[in-house]
Design goal:
The protein is an alpha+beta fold. The chain has one domain. It has two helices and four strands, in the order H-E-E-E-E-H. The strands form two sheets. A two-stranded antiparallel sheet has the order 1-2. The chain has a two-stranded antiparallel ribbon with strand order 3-4.
Length: about 70
């Protein structure tokens, strides 16, 4: 795994927690924690790239070129 990929946060590995209000009148709170890229361990990771993100970027670029 490349050193640069160790420091990347994965947008697909997210822990979302909902915290209920302690008192009446205060709102609920939702927090998200992103986990680091697992690199070669991940099924979507191939030849040093995240295939899920690469596909998403490719689709976004194709949509932008159509406009």
């Amino acid at each position: 795994m490349n050193r640069e990929n160790i420091d990347m946060l994965c947008p697909y590995r997210v822990l979302t927690q909902e915290h209920k209000a302690m008192t009446i009148g205060s709102g609920d709170c939702t927090t998200q924690q992103f986990y680091f890229c697992e690199g070669n361990i991940c099924a979507a990771y191939h030849n040093g790239k995240c295939m899920r993100i690469q596909e998403k970027v490719h689709n976004m670029e194709a949509t932008a070129n159509e406009k």
